[in-house]
């Protein structure tokens, strides 16, 4: 299982697609979805429904068709303190409404379960590894991370983020802020400073459970269309992070030091 920072160390300079005989798409997009126990079954169910609804929505399908090739490649997995291996839905080309519905149906059929801890670094490494090994040539390679808390397990998140960005990938975030998080200045700021990266990278916050499906759809459309959301905090290359990116690890350690 490719879930350690060591795997990422060799990515810089690689083209994340097979150069000979690969299929050309506009975007290779990995959906990395948090299923940690800080969310209850109702919240995870609504999160799942949000992705299913977004993938079937006309706005998403129109965005796919509006690209230069009119096709994208998409994959999916769930993560918490580790990658849930039986959650991985392998690459599928989305070109038609039928393709999108077929992928959404695979996702909808998955059982809902939760796992311990939160390792965003593991999610980034897994997403980067899937992009590198994909059979596609694409103009953009995107890791789409949704989560409801800071990294508190595995390797630190920023080195994993930086290696993926150096390899030419974009990491966007969906900060699930339905409950107070362990990030003192807000989970959206933590994601902006510590998780997202690459040209045009952005984070969208979700503060109300009823807004989840709209936020997911909006994020997917932005990623496919290569647009940036207005009036959003975006990472600036070379900027100093205003957030302690090890806050989750420190808080978890403090629990056991009491």
Automatic annotation (TrEMBL):
The keyword Signal applies. The keyword Signal applies. Keywords: Signal. Residues 1-20 form the signal peptide. Pfam families: DUF1194 (PF06707). Transmembrane segments: none annotated. This is DUF1194 domain-containing protein. It comes from Rhizobium beringeri.
């Amino acid at each position: 299982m490719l879930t350690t920072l060591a795997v990422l160390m060799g990515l810089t300079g690689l083209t994340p697609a097979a150069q000979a005989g690969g299929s050309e798409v506009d975007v290779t997009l990995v959906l990395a979805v948090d299923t940690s126990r800080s969310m209850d079954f109702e919240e995870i169910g609504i999160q799942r429904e949000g992705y299913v609804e977004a993938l079937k929505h006309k706005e998403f399908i129109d965005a796919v068709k509006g690209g230069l090739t009119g096709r994208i490649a998409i994959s999916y997995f769930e993560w918490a303190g580790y990658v849930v291996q039986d959650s991985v839905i392998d690459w599928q080309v989305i070109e038609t409404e039928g393709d999108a519905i077929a992928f959404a149906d695979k996702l909808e059929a998955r059982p809902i379960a939760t796992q311990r801890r939160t390792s965003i670094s593991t999610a980034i490494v897994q997403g980067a590894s899937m992009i590198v090994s994909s059979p596609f040539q694409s103009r953009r390679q995107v890791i789409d991370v949704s989560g409801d808390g800071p990294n508190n397990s595995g390797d630190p998140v920023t080195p994993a983020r930086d290696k993926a960005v150096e390899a030419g990938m974009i990491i966007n975030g969906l900060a699930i802020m339905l409950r107070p998080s362990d990030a003192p200045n807000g989970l959206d700021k933590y994601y902006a400073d510590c998780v997202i990266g690459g040209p045009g990278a952005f984070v969208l916050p979700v503060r109300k459970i009823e807004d989840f499906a709209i936020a997911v759809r909006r994020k997917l459309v932005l990623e496919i269309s290569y647009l940036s959301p207005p009036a959003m905090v975006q990472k600036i290359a070379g900027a100093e992070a205003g957030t302690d990116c090890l806050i989750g690890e420190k808080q978890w350690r403090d629990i056991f030091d009491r």
